Amino acid sequence: MKRKLLALTLSALLLPAAGSALAQAKGKISGDVVKIGVLTDMSGVYSDLGGQGSVVAAQMAIDDFKAKYKPTFKIELVSADHQNKADVGSNKIREWYDTQGVDMVTDVLNSAVALAVAKVTTEKNKIMLNAGAASTRITNEDCAPNNVVHYVYDTYALANGPGKAVTKLGKDTWFLLTADYAFGHSLEKDTTNAVIANGGKVVGNVRHPLNASDFSSFLLQAQASKAKVVGLANAGGDTINSIKAANEFGLTKNQTLVGLLTTVVDIHALGLQTTQGMMFTEGFYWNLNPETREWSRRFFAKHKKMPNMLPAGAYSAVTHYLKAVQATGTDDTATVMKKMKDTPINDFFAKNGKIRDDGRMVHDMLLVEVKKPSESKEPWDYYNIKQVIPGDQAFQPMAASRCPAVLAAKKK
After folding, report:
1. Any residues with CB less than 8 A from the CB of 151 and at least 6 apart, and which?
2. Average confidence score pLDDT of the chain
3. All domains of the chain in start order, with CATH
4. How far apart are CA 137 and CA 114, in angstroms?
């Protein structure tokens, strides 16, 4: 009996100490190392959008953070090619979380891959700051706001700018050429909604496989539709090849091309002669102001290309994450996520950016028009800024959210 009483007494004394030790462990950085992964398309149709450029940007963020904030913890970077395959991406991220101690993953370019990676990230209670994938499912039906942030852009924002602006110019009939997977489907849907909301009509659409080898049959259908606008609900190499083929077919003589996910890298590949006058939404432009130019020229020195919104967003996301870790003294997911949501984002990529309850990072977007060759003053000087779209107008309003966590909170 005395032994039992002694054991109970010791347990009572040790419990607070154990709880304190647990709390202390939670307040520390695991292994004294913060490990960041860049999962991207290194060799496929989207490699010029993110790829090695996102790896370069993430390393720049780490190097700049170390130089400015002098962290006491180590920071390591790993990267991998998901090959635009959801199973490859989810297997790689599971390996990173289980055996390599990765705390946060970014880029995740490709919506199908991102949706698969988000599930593993939630299961393992890690953090994904998505810079590259676009589908609005990431903050709607498949949202995971305790673990996943949609950081740079999405199909709603990409569709909203040109869907409104181009339709209001009187170009009110559209035909959509769509990449046949999650990203393309979301962009097609959001563009259709934007066109209809602004008095236009989508008269037809056709879907093509990712990394299509021949766009002739798809463009013949677009041409036959007589639509005033042919919207390209694709990206990367597919967008470049669509635009090339459209010019070869003479489609642009009578119809307007709108690349719904087009970046400065695509314009550089195609040239101003081919792309002049095109309008689309961008999340970043290197030549916007002195701050964007300073960072972009540093990036160019390392990568030999000017950045589009994906590497710029990856840099911003990594920096925001590391600042939260530094401020809280831990890599605990819940603690770091709370800090990131509580802290406005102010850098060359975003001003007064804010992570909402659905995981959407809200920031201004740009409606741009590609310059004529005679207007360009230097290499990569390709855009006229037609409109700065405030974040609360650029992205889907919270009132329209289909995120289960947001809907549940509304019911309380």
Report:
1. 106, 129, 130, 131, 313, 316, 317, 361
2. 93
3. 32-153+288-364 (3.40.50.2300), 156-282 (3.40.50.2300)
4. 10
* Cut 0.90: pTM above it: yes
Q: How many CA atoms lie within 13 A of 269 on its CB side?
A: 17
What would the two tokens of residue 118 be? 């988000």
pLDDT band at 307 (very low <50, low <70, confident <90, very high): very high
Parallel/antiparallel/unpaired status of strands 256-259 and 229-233: parallel
The 3-state DSSP class for residue 300 equals helix
CA distance 312 to 295: 9
Map residue 273 onto helix, strand or coil: helix
Length of the chain: 412
Task: Tell me how far apart the alpha carbons of residues 143 and 388 are, in angstroms, rounded to a whole number.
Answer: 27
| Phi, psi dihedral angles at 96 (to 5 degrees) | -60, -45
Q: Do 366 and 282 form a contact (C-beta atoms < 8 A)?
A: yes
pLDDT (tens digit per residue) in 81-116: 999 999 999 999 999 999 999 999 999 999 999 999
Task: Give me the mean pLDDT over the 272-291 stretch.
Answer: 96
CB contact set of 2 (below 8 Å; sequence gap of 6+): none
Higher pLDDT, 406 or 6: 406
In order, the DSSP letters of 94-141 are HHHHHHS---EEEE--SHHHHHHHHHHHHHTT-EEEESS---GGGTTT
Q: Which two tokens stand for residue 75?
A: 């920071």
Percent of the chain's residues with pLDDT above 70 = 93
SS3 content of the chain, % helix, strand, coil (to 5): 50, 20, 30
Query: How confident is the model over 272-301, as a mean pLDDT?
Result: 97
DSSP string over 194-212:
HHHHTT-EEEEEEEE-TT-
Can you give the pLDDT at residue 156?
97
**Tokens describing residue 255:** 């119809």
Contact of 107 with 39, CB cutoff 8 Å: yes
Q: Tell me the three state secondary structure of residue 76.
A: strand
Per-residue exposure over 272-284, b if at least 16 CB sit within 10 Å of its own CB, e if not: bebbbebbbbbbb
* Local structure of residue 369 (DSSP, 8 states): E
Q: Residue written as tokens 């996301």? A: 317
Please say if the pLDDT value at position 2 is more than 60.
Answer: no
Q: Check pLDDT > 90 for residue 20.
A: no
> What is the number of helices (H) and of strands (E) in the chain?
15, 14
